[in-house]
Structures are given as structure tokens and as C-alpha cells.
Amino acid sequence: MQAMLQYAGYLILLLVLAYPLGKYIDNVMRGRWVWLSPVIRPVERFLYRLTGVNEREEMTWKKYLGCALLFNFCGFALLFALLMLQGRLPLNPMELSGLEWPLAFNTAVSFVTNTNWQAYSGELQLSYISQMFGLTVQNFVSAGTGMAVLYALIRGFVRTYDDTIGNFWTDLTKSVGYVLVPLAVVVTLLIGSQGVVQNFEDYTTYNLSETVVTEYGTAISKGVVPGGPAASQIAIKQLGTNGGGFFGTNSAHPLENPTPFSNLVEMLSILLIPAALCFSFGNAVGSRRQGVTIFAAMFALLVLGMGIIGFSEQAGTAQLAQNGAVLLEAGDMQPGGNMEGKETRFGIASSAAWAEFTTAASNGSVNSMHDSYTPIGGLITMLNMQLGEVVFGGVGCGLYGMLCFAILTVFIAGLMVGRTPEFMGKKIEPYEMKMAVLACLATPVAILAGSGIASMLPEVAESMNNHGAHGLSELLYAYSSCGGNNGSAFAGFGADTVFLNVSLGIVMLLARFLPIVAVVAIAGSLAGKKKLAVTEGTLPTDNVMFAGLLIAIVLLVGALSFFPALSLGPIAEFLQ
Amino acid sequence: MEGKKTILRQSVGMLLAFTILLGGVYTLAMTGLTQMLFPRQANGSLIYAGDGSRICGSEYLAQPFEAKNHLWGRVMNVSGDALRDKDGSPLLYGGPSNLSPAGEDFGKMMAENVAKIRAAHPEMKDAPIPVDLVTSSGSGLDPEISLAAAEYQVPRLARETGRSQAEVREIIGKCTSGRLLGIFGEPRVNVLKVNLMLDEQLSK
User: Fold this and answer.
1) Using a CB-CB distance cutoff of 8 angstroms, which residues of chain A are in contact with residue B56?
2) What is the domain range of residue A296?
3) How many domains does chain A have?
4) Tell me: the pLDDT tens digits for B102-147?
5) B122 with B64: CB under 8 angstroms?
6) Which residue, A389, A463, B121, B175, could crosslink A393 as a Cys pair with Cβ 3.0–4.6 Å?
7) Whole-prediction pTM value?
8) pLDDT (tens digit, 9 = 90+) per residue, A509-523?
């Protein structure tokens, strides 16, 4: 009962916050005057003057895409250089050395693609300068890129006989300046009040009450309290669906997420913008019902996944129960259930809800270790990523991914009833279909090809922390996470090898940029078309039936692509 | 050609401007604000003991406790290789097990943990052990345990510290936090604080 209250509380709060934010975002992206304009507008104008951007310029889809790709490439190059050179740069109190090239490549790709897959451990391998000037900046601008591309697509639906789809620089600047930064400031202060660290001090050391001896015989008598500018980075890694933790164990680390309150704030931040964007979309295309329909389809999948994970984690396993020697029942005194890899302050409900939120959105931050989830709980987290991160998904990219599925849906539904497919008054023709399929299949193909190749290499088995079916799950999870641009991990998997760093990096690039190319191309093509009048023969796309069809198509593509792989991993482990 | 050069110039310009504004100005402004508003929290929520000058850890980071007169926390996978201080002595750090709870290795580990807890708590006989006392946490640094896991240890603590069970319960009660608004998160006991109070290093 108590758990139900918690799950319901998270969902209701999400809904209450996302709806008004959605309207606000739409006003911002349309260039309207909003209440923050008096503060932010002067900075925005200064930025355009400084960089020689003409904010009135309207771009063709090719130019828009060119700006997006080149900007992202420059971001990659700068981050790569920072990570390689951090040993020779200041703000490095623990005197950490630069990263080797495969790890630097993987990490730079990971943050530019909004994945935040982490083959490194933050507090042990990255200097403060890498964290703030490298990772924090990409956390903001990769999310901003997602929102920009989404609005390019929206303009494709809205405009007629037009060969332009907006201006990448203003879209990027507005989404970062008016949406991400203000929210990040609020979240930083909220979690900072709870005990998330924010300083530039050396790590604090102290004497332990009891000296411990490790299994290798090392006696340890000192403890350490790490520091760093964590709160400001954690705020944006949650809001921007980035997910890359300041500390190695991400939001399970008590200095990254110390209390139920910080957990509430961080968890709502995961889905806040992706959920709000559904409503922004409805506003922008002039049909709130359409926005709500897409939202409802995503929400239904979210609730379903959360229910299954929560149930499975509370039930635990025979190995946990130890023939009744261990108490797994939930009560007022203890959360019970599968507490391996979970924090006491979060228990089962707050951990399971987070696991669903973070894999549904392509966030990838964790507050419990997914590697130690029950087979079915772990399966759902993996499936969320394999569906292409469209159950809310990443900032911007989740919704444009879902809109590609919507295009697929009207096409398939159109074939069944013999009508010309159209969506939002725009005729869907072979060109749009090809591009939508490219966007929808980039993720499954990248995951399956990557994990297929990796599972044939004997050296990869050495990275596994568990034997048998669960070992394969670790590998499949890694490629699913990178292919979904998620970034969470079955963290026992030792991913810092040359092959894994490079191959996972390539998977992240394909899964991020192929859909961006396809979506901007669709936007360009749609913007040039006329708007069709709604007739008797038009398939309505803003009702329950369409939401149901959309869910069916998403599940169909995901299930058909991944059922064989999943049966060898988590399903085999469950049946053992 | 001219167009491409312009785009490159704008890309680099935008990137550098964002790097300065978001990496520099944003991070520094947030550091300034949190240091001003929440200085204790922003610096690791350190706990001072004795005369108030000795740091004995962070409220939020677990320390290993195995002595019989101390409250025990979550199982810790201790590592001394991750971090070292300036003199080269190893610093305590914990991590998750990342084991599958449906695997054989995990089953064996659980059996060992159960046996260890049973042996140290003869008073509890066959009462089932709260699960968080025999599992490791997600961070490996979980500073807290459930109320049930603390209650399970009360008879031992009373026996070993020469206090009555009521006195031990009183200390535990002082270090207990509840759910947020009665809804979110779980009630829990801070292990380090309890032990400092048991050792009379921290006033009740």
C-alpha cells in the first residue's frame, strides 16, 4: 500500500509539473516574450553579436543539419582534447593523469551524444576542469541540440510551401538559456540544501573508528570524503537526460543523492522536460489533443514497466530468501525485497521507480545497481532502451523518435484500410517513410550488430562480472544502453578496454546522429508540402485508438528485434 | 565555400561561449550560492566529534563497523586501492557487488553473511534477518540501515556496551529519519551517528 502511494505520488507530481512547463517551452521556442526574458534576453543578444549569428535568418534543412553536426563535432574535439590533457591543466587536486585515447574517445562521444555512458569512474579519474568545462557543458548543449531538432521537425508539420525550418543557433541558445539553465539553477539549490557537495576543495581525509583489513591484507585506517562541483553538474545531468554521474556510482552515491528529498527532485528532473515536450508539441501544432495522445501512449508504457519492475524487485529471489532465514517482506520497519545494490533510504519503491524513469527516458543515471536487479526487473530496464528510447526518451530526441514511430503507424494503418497515409495534415510519402524507418531502426540495428560482434570475441568475456546468462545480459545491456543513448550500465561489466570503448563509441554515434539526419530531412520535406484538409477519409491521430496502435507498433518493432537476444540473457536466467 | 566557413566560425564561437558561460560562470555561481546558503552540506556534511575539532567522517558516507560494541551497517565491499592520500596511505572506499541476485555466487555470499550475523546475535535465535543487513548497497557507501536491521542488533549492543536495551533504543531513535512527507523514501537509522553516541564521542 505504502509503495503504491509512492509510485502514484511520483507520477502525479510529474504530471502537475510537466503540463505548465510544456506551455512555457513552446512560448520560448517560438520566440515569444516570457517572464524570464528581461534577465536572459540581453545575454542572448550579446551571444549572437559575439558569434556573428543573425537571429532572423531562416535555414534550409541542409544548412540546419550542417550547423547541428558541425557544432557537435567541435564539441567532441574540445572534450576529447580536455580529457587527454587534463593531467597538465589546473584544477586537478588529486593529480589525476590524462585519459588514454580509447577511453577519451568513448567518453567524449558519450557526452556529445547525450548518452553519458561511463567507462571511467568520476571521482577517481577526472579532474574538476574536465568535469565542469567538459562534461557539464556537453550536458547542456547535447540536450539543447535534441530540443532544437525536435522543433525543426515541429516546424515541418506546421509550415506549408516553405523551404526553411528555423535557425539552429537560436533554437539551441533558447533551449539552453531559457529552459535548461533556469531549471538547473533551481535543482542545484534544492539538492545542494540536502548535502550534495559543491566545492573546489581537496578531498577531506579522516581517521576511521575501526581499522579494516581488505581481502588482500591491506590495512586501512583512513577514510575520505570526496569533493568537487557536483551539485551543479548533477542538476543538469538529470534535467538534460544525460545521466553521467559526478561520482562512479552515480545517484546511488550518498554525496550525489543523500536524502529522499534530493531523490524526489532528481527523479522528477529525469522525466520533466521529455514529458513537458509532449504538451509543447500539442501547443505548437495547434492541437492539444494530439500532444495528450502521444503523452498518453508514453505514459501507459511507463506505468506498465514501473509496475513490473516494482513487483519483481519486491518479490526478490530464492538466493535472497535463504530458505526463510532472511526477511523479505515489506513493513513499517524495513523495505524488504531485493535490497542487493539498493540504498536503504530509497528502498524498493524509490529504486524501482527510478530504474523505470531512467531507462524510459534516455537518462541513464541510476540510484541502485541494475546489474543486481532480479532477472525480470533487469529485463524491463533493458527493453525500455531497446524500444528506441521513445517512452518519453531523451530531451527532444525521445519525442522526435516517437513521432517517427507515429509516421510508421499511420503508414501501416493506412495500408490496412487502403488510405493514403497522412499525419498532422501532411501527406506521408516514400521519402518520409524511408527516413522514418532509418530513424526507428538505427537503434536496434546498432545494438544487435554491436553486441553480435562483441559476443563472438573471447576477450570480451573477461569483462563480465557474472557467469552464464547474466554475463550475456551484461554485454547486451552495454550495447543496448549505448544504442539507446541511455548510458546506464550493468556496472559489473568492465567496459574500459580498447575494443569496447571504440565499438560502443561507434554504436552511440550511429544511434544519435542517423536519426538526427533523418528527422531534419523529414522536417525539410514536410515543410515544403501543402496542408491537406481533414476529410471523412482521414485517419484521426488524436484519440485512444491511435494511442493504442502507436503502443502496438513500438512494442512490435522492439519485441521482434530483441526477443531472441533477450531469451538468451534475462529470460534464460529467470527460467534457471 | 564561404557558407561553410561561416558555419565553422559560428560553431567554434558558440562552443567557446557556452564553455565559458556554462562551464565557468554557471559552475562558479552555483558554488558561490551553495557555499553561502548551505556551507555544511556543500562541503560533505562532515561530523565533528570530541571537542569539536576532530573530523570523524561524513554523515552521508558509510564506515566499516565490525566490533561487537558497534552497530553494523550494510555489507561493505572495501577497497583500499582506489584512492590514496598525499603520503601514499590507502583511503577507504566502498563499491557495489554488481552480482546477480539470481546467481550461484550471490547465493553463497548470502549464506556466509547470514551465518556471520546469526553467530553474533545468539539472542535472536531463528528470527529472520532483515534483508538490508546481509546485502551490499548500490553505492557501497550507504550510511544507513533499516529500523528492523537496527532493532535486530539491540540485544547484542546492550550486552556489549553495558547499557539497557531501552538506552540503546533511545540512541537509535535519536539517529532515525522518517519518510519525506510520510510518503517518499524509507525510514532509516544513521549507523555512524549511533556508534559515535555509543562511544560517547557525540552528544545525544
Assistant:
1) 206-207, 209
2) 2-575
3) 1
4) 999 999 999 999 999 999 999 998 999 999 999 999 999 999 999 9
5) no
6) A389
7) 0.94
8) 999 999 999 999 999
